[in-house]
């Protein structure tokens, strides 16, 4: 089988393998791993050339990276005498045993093949190093709740198809095994931190896994210029209507224009926002705040204009109501005076009846016909007391009138005066709370 393999290689390439390689390949079987007594230890190192695209548009976010993947292991079957390494063509990798290394969560990976496959096999007197230039698109689980003020931790995971009894992975220099991030330039991100770790993947059995973690911080300057500043300026533009006269309806109609512009800005920002695993993001909250302030300015104008139209009618109604209440007061005072007069007369009538001696029986008989029933009139009959009831009703009406007077807006122009201070102050306070929460919590 080895002779047939070498013969096919010679025929395919049109060349004869060097004598040193022929001696190494004699009796070599690429389907069998070295060191049957124990697992093969494979050292890994990465050189990240670029991270071209970090996409959040899809439901599963991903990034595309171009990396040099270096794997180093020792194969006792390839030991030869000498102190110099042998550099071989990448196409001879098909003749050697290589660890079955793959990238976890990779959507698409490929080797650069211009002008030939960018692979290099270098055999040392006691081992083998495989260099490979790989471009891969890897999924990254991102939390976009604080988008665009978010920090994302993505991973690049290397795993083997052999279990831990056959192959063991390790980083050749720990955290220094990954290079190239210091000079890396990204469009919207900066690399904050990175580190490496060693773990095991558990499926039906345990498999070796190396993990490279790197933290990306999004640059917010682009979003400030693209979204935050225009939306804030639209809010400020809606406040201009507070300085325009309420009678100038065409001039204040610009508020409707700001509402429409803000709606267009929100829809335009939505098209570039990711369809993330969270419904509300930080930029959605800010756009909602700006839209609420602009809509509030529109409502303020509607209320102020309505109060202007009804101010004259309300004033006349209050005058009529006041005159009516004054007449009621005069009438109630007359009733109270009349009742008081009758009460004092009744008291004066009762006083002689109490002080005079008892009348004879004939007098009693002469009084009895005045009673319809013929019975003796009751000496003490408490007269009705409408005074307290009338006073209570009058006090209640006065309280209602006072409450209506407090709720009534004397001058509708005061609404604009209050809005000139309330709207900007509220917007500043809300902005302080918003930026403090999303930047520091």
Automatic annotation (TrEMBL):
Signal peptide: none annotated. It holds the Pfam family Neur_chan_LBD. Residues 361-376 have a biased composition (Low complexity). Residues 227-435 form the Neurotransmitter-gated ion-channel transmembrane domain. It is a multi-pass membrane protein. It is found in: Cell membrane; Membrane. The chain crosses the membrane at residues 220-244, 250-273, 285-304, 421-440. Residues 21-219 form the Neurotransmitter-gated ion-channel ligand-binding domain. GO terms for cellular component: apical plasma membrane; chloride channel complex. Residues 342-385 are annotated as: Disordered. InterPro entries: GABAA/Glycine_rcpt, Neur_chan_lig-bd, Neur_chan_lig-bd_sf, Neur_channel, Neuro-gated_channel_TM_sf, Neuro_actylchol_rec, Neurotrans-gated_channel_TM, Neurotransmitter_ion_chnl_CS. Keywords: Cell membrane, Chloride, Chloride channel, Ion channel, Ion transport, Membrane, Signal, Transmembrane, Transmembrane helix, Transport. The keyword Cell membrane applies. GO terms for molecular function: GABA-A receptor activity; GABA-gated chloride ion channel activity. SUPFAM superfamilies: Neurotransmitter-gated ion-channel transmembrane pore, Nicotinic receptor ligand binding domain-like. Belongs to the ligand-gated ion channel (TC 1.A.9) family. This is Gamma-aminobutyric acid (GABA) A receptor, pi. It comes from Poecilia mexicana.
């Amino acid at each position: 089988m080895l002779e047939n393999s070498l013969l096919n290689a010679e025929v395919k390439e049109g060349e004869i393998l060097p004598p040193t390689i022929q001696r190494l390949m004699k009796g070599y079987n690429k389907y069998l791993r070295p060191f049957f007594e124990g697992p093969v230890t494979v050292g890994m190192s990465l050189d990240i050339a670029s991270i071209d695209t970090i996409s959040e548009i899809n439901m599963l976010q991903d990034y595309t990276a171009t990396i040099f993947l270096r794997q180093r292991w020792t194969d006792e079957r390839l030991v030869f005498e000498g102190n110099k390494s042998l550099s071989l063509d990448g196409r001879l990798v098909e003749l050697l045993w290589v660890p079955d290394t793959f990238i976890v969560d990779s959507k698409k990976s490929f080797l650069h093949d211009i002008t030939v496959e960018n692979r290099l096999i270098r055999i040392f007197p006691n081992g083998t190093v495989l260099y490979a230039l790989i471009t891969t698109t890897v999924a990254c689980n991102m939390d976009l709740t604080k988008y665009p003020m978010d920090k994302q931790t993505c991973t690049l995971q290397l795993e083997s198809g052999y279990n831990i009894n056959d192959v063991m992975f390790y980083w050749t220099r720990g955290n220094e095994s990954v290079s190239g991030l210091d000079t890396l330039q990204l469009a919207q991100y900066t690399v904050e931190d990175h580190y490496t770790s060693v773990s095991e993947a558990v499926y039906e059995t345990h498999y070796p896994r190396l993990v490279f973690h790197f933290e990306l911080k999004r640059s917010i300057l682009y979003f400030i210029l693209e979204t935050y500043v225009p939306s804030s300026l639209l809010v400020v533009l809606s406040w201009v209507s507070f300085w325009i006269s309420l009678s100038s309806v065409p001039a204040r109609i610009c508020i409707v224009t700001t509402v429409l512009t803000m709606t267009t800005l929100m829809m335009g920002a939505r098209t570039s926002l990711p369809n993330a695993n969270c419904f509300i993001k930080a930029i959605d909250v800010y756009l909602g705040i700006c839209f609420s302030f602009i809509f509030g300015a529109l409502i303020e104008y509607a209320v102020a204009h309505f109060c202007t139209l009804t101010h004259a009618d309300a004033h006349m109604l209050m005058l009529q109501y006041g005159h009516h209440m004054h007449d009621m007061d005069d009438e109630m005072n007359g009733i109270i005076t009349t009742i008081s007069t009758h009460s004092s007369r009744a008291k004066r009538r009762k006083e002689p009846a109490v002080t005079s001696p008892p009348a004879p029986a004939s007098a009693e008989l002469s009084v009895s016909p005045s009673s319809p029933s013929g019975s003796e009139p009751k000496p003490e009959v408490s007269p009705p007391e409408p005074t307290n009831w009338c006073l209570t009703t009058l006090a209640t009406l006065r309280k209602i009138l006072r409450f209506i007077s407090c709720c009534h807006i004397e001058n509708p122009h005061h609404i604009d005066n209050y809005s000139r201070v309330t709207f900007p102050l509220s917007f500043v306070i809300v902005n302080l709370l918003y930026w403090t929460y999303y930047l520091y919590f």
